[in-house]
Design brief:
Layout: H1 2-25, H2 31-55, H3 60-82, H4 86-97, H5 102-120, H6 128-141, H7 160-163, H8 168-178, H9 182-210, H10 214-229, H11 238-244, H12 249-268, H13 278-291, H14 293-314, H15 320-326, H16 328-340
């Protein structure tokens, strides 16, 4: 039963949560896009509710309840807005899958191997001594960033490098709700879904590049998977992060969130950036902040590069306004970091 609850939290909840952002963005009605929007919405909500909870020394239980209520409201609102279109999400997905070819099958084999390796094997990393220890400490003490996971002593002050990006608390909440041990969630189960999440993002990048040419998209996904398989030339490559520790926020940032920004750049390179695009970009910026403290800077930096490309193509200088507004959360957190470090 514990694992059924966890699978529900990792599959059904993101899909239901993504309906609301889909409706606001008027996005395509497919399960893949909804899954992306769902996780981005979850990360954004957790960033917004976690920081006040940490500052006011709320318990993990309180944070879990608040986050659950907010996400439940989003799920209900999204379901009501999209209730007449729910079947289209399934049919839209099958419309894509019916055009697959041999390259899709080869890519699928490699992706399945990567997912299966995470599920059947286990890699450890020195950073787990902090990230997973922070999650298990929060779960064991029902507190948020109150105890140093290295020593068990109470923090004299907030750990500035980590407290603004409390990604580890995601595992604490999942463990608290499901009852599954946090190490099992992080090392065995959630990587399977994050690998799928990543390749869904890569699919949409390919879709922007190749204009729905399913043959070329299949080649793209196959070679992305192949490059990852042979990326062990260093411990610092994106492929190594992807294949050995995608459960860490900084690996999620590099493997999923920055590529998601790239998809936004490709989508808007020749189009006008409007106020509505803030609804697309701002949740991604919040997700970057939640995943890693590096995302506070790297998210806006990636967006800035994208805006320069957009400006050189369109010459529309005032399109920078929605971009800047979407990055305000990152600016606020950067200022907070300066004061608490």
């Amino acid at each position: 039963m514990r694992y059924i609850i966890l699978i529900f939290l990792l599959v059904i909840v993101p899909l239901l949560t993504g309906l609301f952002l889909n409706s606001l963005k008027n996005d395509e009605k497919t399960l893949g896009r909804t899954y992306i929007n769902g996780w981005i919405s979850i990360f954004a909500v957790l960033e917004v509710v976690s920081l006040p909870a940490i500052y006011f020394e709320a318990s993990l239980t309180t944070l879990t309840i608040i986050a659950g209520v907010v996400l439940a409201i989003i799920i209900v609102a999204g379901t009501l807005k999209e209730k007449d279109s729910l079947l289209k999400y399934v049919t839209g997905t099958f419309d894509i899958l019916k055009n697959v070819n041999i390259m899709w099958l080869l890519a699928g084999v490699l992706i399945a191997i990567q997912m299966g390796t995470y599920f059947l094997k286990m890699t450890s990393d020195d950073d787990d001594a902090f990230y997973l220890a922070t999650a298990t400490t929060a779960n064991a003490t029902n507190t948020l960033f109150k105890y140093n996971p290295y020593t068990g002593d109470m923090y004299d002050s907030f750990p500035a490098r980590y407290v603004l990006s409390p990604f580890s608390l995601l595992y604490s909440m999942l463990g608290k709700i499901s009852g599954v041990h946090i190490a099992v969630i992080a090392h065995t189960l959630i990587p399977v879904f994050f690998v799928a999440f990543a390749y869904i993002v890569y699919f949409y990048i390919a879709k922007r590049l190749f204009k729905d040419d399913m043959n070329k998209i299949g080649f793209f996904l196959f070679f992305i998977a192949l490059i990852f398989e042979f990326s062990g030339i260093s411990t610092r490559t994106t492929g190594v992060f992807f294949l050995t520790r995608i459960w860490q926020g900084k690996a999620l940032l590099a493997s999923i969130l920055i590529p998601l920004i790239m998809e936004f750049i490709l989508a808007k390179a020749r189009e006008k950036i409007t106020a509505k695009d803030i609804l697309w970009l701002c949740p991604i910026m919040l997700a970057c902040c939640y995943a890693s403290s590096m995302g506070i800077l790297l998210g806006p930096l990636a967006v800035a590069i994208g805006w320069l490309v957009h400006f050189f193509i369109t010459k529309k200088v005032w399109d920078i306004i929605p971009v800047v507004l979407a990055c305000i959360p990152n600016l606020i957190l950067a200022i907070i970091y300066v004061f608490i470090r």
